[in-house]
Amino acid sequence: MSSSETMRAMWCERPETVEMRHLPVHEVGDDDVLVKVAYAAICPWDVRAYSGLSSAVAFPRILGHEVAGTVAAVGNNVKGLEIGQPVAPDMIIKCGVCKACRTGRANRCQRPTFLQYGGGYADYVRVPQRNIHPLRPTTSLKAAAMMEPLACVLRGQEMLRLYPGEVELVVGLGPIGLMHLQVARNFGARVIASDPVDRKSTRLNSSH
């Protein structure tokens, strides 16, 4: 890929201000993978950041961290990945050396790096190979964009250690609540689901 190529990106200059810009495509380092974005989901974190409700978010930035796409380019040291291969990149770079990382709990990394200028609301994202999750060729890229929130749900359900036949109450039927419902059922639990918005509960009940 030519270094002179540009990509479209939804540039968030400051809270509640976003515009499409044409920016240079990320240069690929020796250990990096460039991913052509197919789908990028909208996380509540993105909404809070865009709305200026998180003082920890630096601007300007490109939002979006729930991403799926295909490999567009690889660095010289990257092995085992092919151009066009479907992947889901982890958009949070873990330090790899803190206690949490060294004990297999990288999700609790004490010094993570958030990709300020490389968010998923763009044509391409660049991450280290260790942050790439290869997908099967038959995997829906639209579904794979929800892999990060689904992983959070799965971890929470595993911590509950449900047994088949146990009862779980899911309160709130947004995307995360619906995923909790499905995963709990997959574990064999009986699920009671409730939402303060009547139409969500009604729609769920009418589907069964």
Properties at a glance:
208 residues, alpha+beta, Quinone Oxidoreductase, Chain A, domain 1, Rossmann fold, 2 domains, 5-stranded antiparallel beta sheet, 3-stranded antiparallel beta sheet, 6 helices, globular
**Number of E-state strands:** 12
CATH superfamily of the largest domain: Medium-chain alcohol dehydrogenases, catalytic domain
Radius of gyration: 19 Å
CATH fold name of the largest domain, please? Answer: Quinone Oxidoreductase, Chain A, domain 1
Number of helices: 6
Write the H/E string, N to C. Answer: EEEHEEEEHEEEHHEHEH
Overall pLDDT level: 91
How would you describe the overall organization of this protein?
This protein is of the alpha+beta class and 208 residues long. It has two domains: 6-139, Quinone Oxidoreductase, Chain A, domain 1 (Alpha-Beta Complex); 152-206, NAD(P)-binding Rossmann-like Domain (Rossmann fold). Helices cover 24% and strands 31% of the residues. It has six helices and twelve strands. The chain has helices at residues 44-50, 99-102, 141-144, 147-160, 175-186, 198-206, and strands spanning 6-14, 17-24, 32-41, 61-62, 66-74, 86-89, 92-93, 113-114, 124-128, 132-134, 167-171, 190-194. The strands form four sheets. It has a five-stranded antiparallel beta sheet. It has a three-stranded antiparallel beta sheet with strand order 2-1-4, with no helix packed on it. It has a two-stranded antiparallel sheet with strand order 7-8. α4 packs across α5.
